Amino acid sequence: MDINSIKAQIDSEIGNINSPETLEELRVKYLGRKGLIAQLTGSIPGMPQGERAAFGQEVNALKNKITFLIDEKHMGITGNTTESPLSSVDIGLPGISQELGHLHPITQVTNEICAIFSQMGFAIVEGPEIETEYNNFTGLNIPLEHPSRDVFDTFYLKSPDSPVQLLRSHTSPVQIRVMKSRKPPLAVVVPGRVYRPDAVNVSHSFMFHQIEGFVVDENIKFSDLKGALEVFAKGIFGKKIKMRFRPHFFPFTEPSAEVDISCIICQGKGCSVCGQKGWLEILGSGMIHPNVFKNVGYDSKKYTGFAFGMGVERIAMLKYGIDDIRLFFENDLRFLKQF
Length: 339
Ligand code: DAH
What we know:
With 339 residues, this protein is α+β, with helices and mostly antiparallel strands. The protein has helices at 3-16, 20-31, 36-43, 49-78, 105-119, 133-136, 173-181, 222-237, 290-296, 312-320, 327-330, 333-336, and strands spanning 123-124, 130-132, 156-157, 165-167, 186-195, 207-217, 243-250, 253-262, 279-288, 304-311. The two termini are 76 Å apart. Bound molecules: 3,4-dihydroxyphenylalanine. 3,4-dihydroxyphenylalanine binds at residues 170, 172, 212, 250, 253, 284-286, 307-309. 3,4-dihydroxyphenylalanine binds next to β9 and β10.
């Protein structure tokens, strides 16, 4: 069969095709391995040398034309092209989305607390987790033999040279650092990790987070402490909560107080969360002890100040009703994704 009759034949045959199956048969007949085009190509080597190139070009043009006609027909029948890159893609399939992470709940609560104090004019300062024994204890009026050292006892680092170093057991030592390096007026909050040799259980961990805060200036009074803590507590737990100050002892403050809020679960009536007391302890506080001022070289006749310290895990647990501190450190996504 020659080129011209094949051309005429495909033109008439393709008009009658109306199913993908018959179209495939047609494709095999013309373009298949043993099809008409292959037969024409196969005849080239037997042709006189001078005619081969021109004939080859004509066969190629015919092959392209047939391919085009078949594709066009295929599109007409199925609404799809045979060669379209989209033909092998299910465009209805949902895409692979990239999951966005978010801040850890402890970081979120830390930021929230710092933001409240920052609005009141407090600066945010960080200190090192490896501290000197002096800043962690002695400078804060906790002498070597004092029994209250037990409460804040911590991990000591082997240091052949003095000064003795340790993992800080509270963020209070940053008071000493800031007071020594700056002059009043001071209003500072200090977020950070602290360490204690506690066995891990529902309410204890060898590592947790604290926020220390303090203000030093002339004429700072206990009422300034109350005012600042009330803004903080209402900002975190809601405007309806009540606060109370209970006398307590801390070596670095005098007078000292523990601060409670009315139970956010039972509103003070008494429930299992507050142990039927109606109150939840949230932090320790007081007026900075004159000995602390003496240790940093401040005149305690001229300056007064207040300080407070809180555990971030405790605040987060109360705020979100979490009953096990270990959840914060296990990094189970089922827990973390809820924040
Ligand atoms: N440092 C104390 C602790 O870790 C918390 C604290 C209590 C800090 C009273 C203070 C304060 O500044 O005045 O338990």
